[in-house]
Write a structure and sequence with these properties.
alpha+beta; 5 domains; 34 strands; elongated
Length: about 1150
Amino acid sequence: MLRRGLTRLLGGDERRVDSRTIYVGHRSSSTNEAFIPPKFCDNRIVSSKYTVWNFLPKNLFEQFRRIANFYFLIIFLVQVIVDTPTSPVTSGLPLFFVITVTAIKQGYEDWLRHKADNEVNKYPVTVLEDGRRIRKESEKIKVGDVVEVEEDKTFPCDLILLQSSRGDDTCFVTTASLDGESNHKTHYTVPDTEKDLESLNATIECEQPQPDLYKFVGRMHIYKTNQEPAVRSLGPENLLLKGATLKNTQKICGVAVYTGMETKMALNYQGKSQKRSAVEKSINAFLLVYLCILVSKALVCTTLKYVWQGKPGQDEPWYNEKTQREKDTNLYLKMFTDFLSFMVLFNFIIPVSMYVTVEMQKFLGSFFITWDKDFFDPEIKEGALVNTSDLNEELGQVEYVFTDKTGTLTQNNMEFIECCIDGFQYKYQDESSELDGLCVPDGPVSKLQQKAGREREELFLRALCLCHTVQVKESSEQGQGQGDGLTNQVDGLGVDGEVLHPAHEQRGFIASSPDEVALVKGAMRYGFTFLGLESKTMKILNRNKDIEMYELLHVLNFDPVRRRMSVIVRSKSGETLLFCKGADSSIFPRVKQEEVERIRMHVERNATEGYRTLCVAYKYLSEEEYAQADAGLREARLALQDREQKLMSVYNQVETGMSLIGATAVEDRLQEEAAETMEALQGAGMNVWVLTGDKMETAKSTCYACRLFQRSTELLELTVRTLEDGGRRREERLHELLLDYHKKAVQDAPPVKAGVTRRWSSANQDYGFIIDGATLSMVLNSSSESNASRYKNLFLQICQNCTAVLCCRMAPLQKAQIVKMVKNSKGCPITLSIGDGANDVSMILEAHVGIGIKGKEGRQAVRNSDYAIPKLKHLKKLLLAHGHLYYVRIAHLVQYFFYKNLCFILPQFLYQFFCGYSQQPLYDAAYLTMYNICFTSMPILAYSLLEQHICIEVLLDNATLYRDIAKNAMLRWGLFLYWTLLGVFHGLLFFFGVRFLFSNPALQDNGQVFGNWSYGTIVFTVLVFTVTLKLALDTRHWTWINHFVIWGSLAFYVFFSFFWGGIIWPFLKQQRLYFVFANMLSSVSAWLVIILLILVSLLPEILLVVFRKPRGPNARQMQHRLPSSGTSTIFMLSQTASSHSFSWSD
């Protein structure tokens, strides 16, 4: 019955039908029954992909899933099995090289993951067994073990806190590696547990593992002899999560409830899958087209061969009689082997060397990011880091940017700016510790030198000193803490110009939120110092250096629905006071309305300046009021069912009829150039979404400060608070709000021109969308499947029509879910995630491109990212300059490779019509092998590494240029068709131009005729020169390297041809090119044809470049598009306008 009740309690969002029972210390609750421990998973963490045994088969399987690798494997096998015109080495060697290099790279990456796993799994921990402290490896912890953890150590698994070294039965933890928050959070021991854990006999019944970091429901049964078992409720405040770190507490003991891959941290970890760029997908699509061309060529030639041989006398001429074996061969088998032979002969249309060149381009190109001096940060003395070079070009295709807030957009460094008391503004600019530093009222000028009454000032400062959950860290501990790099979490209490009591001089503050520390330090500036909390007594040092003491009766904790927190305290004189601070929208309705107007103007002005504002109110409680509130709070806290709702109703009852004293303004410092970076990204047509685990108010003010939300932006809010406003069921209200927002943002919005974001057309209303984690789980996991997909579609359409989206209170896995949802939406947009903490790892792994920031939150994000940069501001150059150029370079490389191979193999195909379809090669075997490897590979590699069609300064100044290449613009089918037709035109021209020359066969002075190898060599010479000069025409940015490889490749071809044909090579059975090249160049006709054909091939291109006038929005920037560097005549021609490869952008 208890289990059934608990199952009902645990239902809802998790849809769990089962719970787990854990025996603390593996001790049975009943002495009569035999104890059979339940089986749970061990505490090992596995993030690696391969093992020693499965590496080879698994890696080969993954590699041969690539269409090109599989194709070349088949061709290689055909060459080995069938008698083909070319050697198996021509395809086998490049394939072996590509497979080996990739396997070594992936094997090394996985070895690093194994190493990291071992570090975690072999970490020594202390387990209490039968009263003894035993050291074990972390992976050997079992569910039910009692584990001891010391200060500054991380928790090895998810623990329920049983005992703490602190006198008040609490402990402090930081969860930076889980949710990115570096502030201290307070956790509580289970009440009434034995001090001696050896004699504790208890069981825990709790929910099955689930990934939500902020949810945990369970109960603990404590068995004592001759007594009824005591039942204590367990919540998230009792649960210490794996990966969190113990702070300001010497040691704790806890019982393991979730271990290994069942911990909340592991459930939030997204496995690392191999990412593939959009360019690679385009290559595969183009490859299929060329495969179809290849197969159709082979089919045409095979068919025509047998048609031709069907004519009398053609099949077996007198000079070439068939052998007996040929006569006995099955006709269909012979046709099939002929088909395969043609496939091998035309196989060079599929460029295997392109994959090698692309791999080299990506690998070498990634060094330019690492070497970029603009990415060097003098503070951490590090630059950018490239973990995955496969995605360089993807940086130029990003459509959605998902960013973390804390530590990414902001520095997580709060500073008290000013306050307002009774409508008078107090701005601290003086070294004096008195409140009369500077007073500038928001009201009329006549009030300029006025101030609020001293009594009100002191009441306001007392409220700041009492209404919080800040703890004071003692000086002895602080020194030790700072030695461990804890200076970010602990703020020193040095006060400008004020000499404090020596005992309190070197203290530090610990708080669950950095703005609480900022407010306490703000009060210190004006003479009120919080000295700490000792056994429920809060101490304050006031202006007169007197110590005031208050008994802390209750803390009404902050929550995102109420958006305020309160404390109830009792002064020495016996007065009971309630102090409350919170967001203006939650405080104003609960105070006297005549007090609101004085403060409202101040709050609104601060909000427009991007500060985080809080209002402060108070109330005197009579004895009866306090007794009623006390009873209500105690009863609600013991409830197992609907605990939160019961507490909420008591809170709301107490926090009414308050008096407003004033407001505060705190600044969460933005990262350097954060606003400019966000503006540039939006200008480039990217949608920016902020995904944070932080509170909504904080995140909202950051979005305003980053200019993601403007003052004119209408915010559409879909949070727990807005769902509860309607007074109906949440599901109904959710449906109603989604439809309402969809009508506003999607249906009623005027259509937007392609490539223009709403931000740039001021006539339209801008919308910003805000959602929290709880509402998002309702949208994604609705009770009915049909509703879930409908909600998801509505939600996506609304978000896509908003200028910016803010998702707050997100669990790490929810961040990844959002990225996945957008990634898989219509059009499959390219996504980028950027974050600095371990809580961002899931979304970094999920997005097409993951970027880690080398921040203060550890290095998990950096280790799991594709690229790492020191600061957010570096993202602008990474995308707008590097990304843009990488994409243009590789897109040109891919199109050029297909074009030059089509030029290469089309004459070979046409030649079959003139040689009886006998599979006679047109080119010598050396030319076939060397064409892609030596003669034409280096110029395109240099181009793909060094080309700058627009100089970097212009790319950074004009973010809109990024839109020109959006949505894979340079690898669309139209451009692919253009390059293919260009290849066909050049191939036809080469073949038939040389054939026209050969119409008079006597081309030499002595009347001798040229043979078929001379014919092929002339075609090949025209081909090599044309495709190389075509690339020279496309080059805009000339360096000495470009000159060296372009003219060097042509010189090498001429030198090689003389060398290859000028010597008798002993290892060759037949030497087809002996003196052919030298003999060919002795003919003036051959020279004339070669020069004429090269000029005719490139003439349309040159004319297009010379006569085409620039047009379109970027025409004026034409003269700026080119970097200053050495130019050639060809380059000067190309300067006048975009050549065809870039003409689409104008």
